[in-house]
Amino acid sequence: MIEIIHPGWLSCIVDRGRYGYASVGIPPSSALDLYAYKALNLLTGHEEDAPVLEVMGAPFSLKFHEEVLCAITGAKVQATLNEQLIKPWTSFRATAGSLLQIKEVMEGFRFYVGFSGIMTLEKIIGSFTTNIECQFGGYQGRTLACGDLLHFSEWKETDRRSLPEREIPVMHSPHRLRVVEGPEIHYFTDESVKRFVDRESRIIYDVSSKTNRTGIRLEGPPLSFREEVEKSIISEGILPGTVQIPGDGLPIIMLYERTIGGYARIAMVVKADHDRLAHLKPGDYVLFEMVSLEEAEKLWEGKRKSITSLNKTVRRLS
Amino acid sequence: MNLSRYGEDGIRILFGDVIDLDVHERVRHFFFFIKSLQREEIIDIIPSFRSCLIYFDLQQTTFERLSSLIMEKMQASSSLPVVPDPFIHEIPVRYGGECGPDMAFVSSHTGLSENEIIDIHTGITYTVFAIGFIPGFPYLGILDQRIQVPRLETPRVQIPEGSVGIAQRQTGIYPFQSPAGWRIIGLTEVSLFNDRKEPYSLLKIGDRVKFVKV
């Protein structure tokens, strides 16, 4: 069993997500950084997708009430176990009574904490992940709070493991996001599209403080709609990474909490850059770069390989 | 039917440009047809007013392969796919007062009395065109022109579960306490979403909804 002592700014249970019911509006609500999620599972001995904690912001701390293997991935953090520095992306054995503290997030935004024990939680609609807005899944359908107790029902016995430093992705600002054209890109003036993605003159956006798990709001000079178009569309399906432009002209990058949107979709962030979205924090800089679908597919092929080869790159520590 | 790519792993199938029942029927038939194929490479499908968005698994197929498979299957199916009969739901609503904080606005905007608005709102059997933004939320249409109102300039931060709203040509019911940009005219006690019981949502696309004043 573990006990949450300090939940950070926001922490919740996540997994690979909830799929198959988008037609009745059920969104994936998955972990935002799926590379960090996969690595974490491997570091703690899970071949399958186990539930883990997704935490935003420091300080975060939890107490172990029994011995378990634990690891932290995602954002670069300063973490200690009983005041001794521990290495992220490397599993460590925590004994009963020990205290894990994340004192500072140095690079990136969200970090993930996982255990060799499988947390005793109920799958709701096929997933352990938390739909925070609608209060189902995860731990009692809500974000974690001080004093929450998470029990383990089953243990994966495993050696300590580590991911080599070179396999840890970069997560710092500025974030250069590659995008492909969205269905309503022609709703915007040529000048605006150019300012959105042109290498020489593109807008450098700031991540707004209104950003949340549903979407990342950006601030900067607004884009202009063509005079003849409506500023909203007939509501339609969207996928994670869709960049919507509401009437105010400022982009919102949609994450994993919506199935339908009603704003003009200027672009979609390429799949290879989706994990990076987990690490856009208020005040960071964001730039967009347009690529072709062929390039996007190549980028994804590279990323997919790095995810599938995690099985090999995660090494046993002797 | 117009197929186009939506990012690396999406296919957008467009059936028209407007909100109307003919376009909706085509969306609905296509949606149930795709569901009936039970293809493993299709992870999800999102039907809405004028399109279906298919989310597929890039490890199992490509845009080209899946698009041509869909076209082939469509041409090969000699008869129309089996489409479930729409279910008609009666939804009791308490209108106005504390249950409908925007009733006064709708009344002044339309020049109609509260009773006239209620008569018009309950006078139509609506069609479920899409379900989403939040789980179980039905986009219902088509609202009578006389009570069409704009959305709120600034959405409310929180409205109670069961709130019945109107906006432009649509009406809908909020299954959860949530932020809302539509004008709220009433409240229902009917539960639209149950995370413990399949199919989770009370409504499916194509179902009909009739509001009844209580």
Radius of gyration of chain B: 19 Å
Question: What's the mean pLDDT score of chain B?
Answer: 95
- Global geometry of chain B: elongated
Strands of chain A, total number = 21
Q: How much is the radius of gyration of chain A in Å?
A: 20 Å
Class by helix and strand content of chain B? alpha+beta
- Gross morphology of chain A: globular
CATH architecture of the largest domain in chain B: Beta Barrel
Assembly level:
heterodimer
What is the helix/strand order of chain A? EEHEEEEEEEEEEEHEEEEEEEHHE
User: Mind telling me the CATH superfamily name of the largest domain in chain B?
Assistant: Cyclophilin-like
Query: Segments of chain B where pLDDT lies below 50 for 5+ residues?
Result: none
CATH topology of the largest domain in chain B: Cyclophilin
Q: Main traits of this protein?
A:
heterodimer, A: 318 residues, mainly beta, Cyclophilin, 2 domains, nine-stranded antiparallel sheet, seven-stranded mixed β-barrel, 4 helices, 12% helix, B: 214 residues, alpha+beta, Gyrase A, domain 2, seven-stranded mixed sheet, four-stranded antiparallel sheet, 13 strands
Give structural notes:
The complex is a heterodimer of chains A (318) and B (214). With 318 residues, chain A is mainly β. Chain A has helices at 34-43, 190-197, 293-308, 310-313; strands at residues 2-7, 10-14, 52-56, 60-64, 68-81, 84-86, 92-94, 99-115, 117-119, 149-150, 152-155, 161-162, 175-181, 205-207, 215-219, 232-237, 242-245, 252-254, 260-269, 285-290, 315-316. In chain A, strands 1, 2, 3, 4, 5, 6, 7, 8 and 10 form a 9-stranded antiparallel beta sheet that branches. In chain A, a hairpin with a 7-residue loop joins strand 14 (205-207) and strand 15 (215-219). Chain A is globular. Chain B is built from 4 helices and 13 strands. In chain B, the strands form 3 sheets. A 7-stranded mixed beta sheet of chain B has the order 7-6-13-5-12-9-10. Chain B has helices at residues 21-37, 63-76, 103-110, 114-122, and strands at 2-5, 10-14, 42-47, 51-56, 88-95, 126-131, 138-141, 156-159, 163-167, 170-173, 178-180, 183-187, 208-213. Chain A binds chain B through residues 19-27, 124-125, 131, 133-137, 180, 183, 234-239, 241-242, 258-262, 268, 270-271, 293, 296-297, 300, 304, and chain B through 4-10, 12, 18-19, 31, 43-53, 55, 58-59, 130-137, 139, 175-176, 178, 193, 195-196, 199-201, 203-205.
